[in-house]
Design brief:
The chain is globular. The chain has ten helices and six strands, in the order αααβαβββββαααααα. By secondary structure, it is of the alpha/beta class. It starts with a helix and ends in an 8-residue tail after the last helix.
Length: 267
């Protein structure tokens, strides 16, 4: 009987500690989510992400709160000769990543633990010893890898349809509900029938256009597989909104509903 009592007391203590930690974290998240960037953080984002000043004011405010939670909970690690991940780098990455999370529920990217930052393109070897050069990666086990030069370059050109942060964090969105397959977790009010039908048709169209040598608004890398198609379509949606809406109206509308925003209407 004494042994059972000890177990019950120990269990109650552990549960109490877990609840206290959860409550403290929830309180901190709420506080950060209603806070805004410092003037220095605003300056960093404006200097490195041209799209920032085009965002609607309400969306910018929401992104700031999400980004502050992101910065508080995610670990950034310097790799490949990068001496340090500066506060400027961290803020710029967080702001762009949280643009994609603005229509999601809860704290941003709950499965993500670390962002590995390289100064520039880096080399990796696959399981067969073959070496390749990469600018970024997204791993389903809670890691994103980014080359800072490409982060900055993509942010300073907001009309080419290439943005490394948006691309890799689109993969993170894609893996919220399982392996990356181009079918992210949709909001409750989404058109669940149209998504696979439209995305499947648009993916095939891009593959056919690229095979035929036709010019496309989306990068040919989107033909790799459905997961890469979703990531490329996301980059295009935010950086080539008008052109995408003209050429792929159904795809544009699905993404507009998913992200709850309409980039073609921005200034």
């Amino acid at each position: 009987m004494d042994g059972i009592l000890v177990i019950l007391v120990a269990t109650a203590v552990v549960l109490g500690i877990c609840y206290w930690r959860w409550k403290k974290r929830s309180q901190r998240r709420r506080l950060l989510a209603t806070s805004t960037f410092s003037e220095e953080q605003h300056q960093w984002v404006r200097q490195n992400w041209k799209l920032w000043d085009e965002l609607p004011e309400g969306l910018r405010t929401e992104i700031e709160g999400l980004a502050l939670v992101f910065l508080d909970e995610k670990v950034f690690e310097a790799c490949g000769g990068l001496l340090d991940v500066t506060d400027e780098m961290r803020t710029v990455v967080a702001a762009q990543a949280c643009l994609l999370w603005s229509n999601q529920r809860g704290a941003p990217y709950p499965a993500l633990r670390a962002i590995l930052m390289y100064p520039d393109a880096y080399r990796v070897k696959d399981d067969y010893g073959m070496e390749s050069v990469r600018l970024g990666e997204s791993w389903s086990r809670g890691t994103v890898v980014l080359a800072w030069n490409s982060v900055r370059g993509g942010g300073l050109n907001d009309e080419d349809g290439h943005n490394l942060v948006l691309h890799e964090f689109a993969h993170q969105l894609d893996t919220v509900n399982g392996p990356a397959d181009g079918f992210p977790e949709l909001p409750p009010n989404a058109d669940f029938e149209s998504w696979p039908k439209v995305f499947g048709r648009e993916f095939k169209t891009l593959c056919d256009d690229v095979d035929s040598g036709r010019k496309t608004v989306m990068d040919s890398y989107g033909t790799t597989n459905e997961a890469e198609f979703f990531a490329v379509a996301t980059e295009t949606f935010f950086e080539k909104a008008r052109k995408m809406e003209e050429e792929h109206p159904e795809l544009y509308q699905l993404l507009s509903d998913f992200f709850a925003t309409d980039p073609k209407s921005w200034s």
